[in-house]
Amino acid sequence: MERGLSVLLQRCFEVNAHIWIKPAVWVFAFVGMTVVVVNRIMATYTAKHRFVQMSARKIRPFADLVRGKFADEALELLACYPNRGARFIEKVIHSAVENAKDQRAPRPDELEIVEIRVDCGPMAKRFRPMSRGSSSIYLKRMSHITVEVG
Question: Which of the residues 62, 101, 140, 147 has an alpha carbon 20 to 30 A from that of 119?
Answer without folding.
Answer: 101
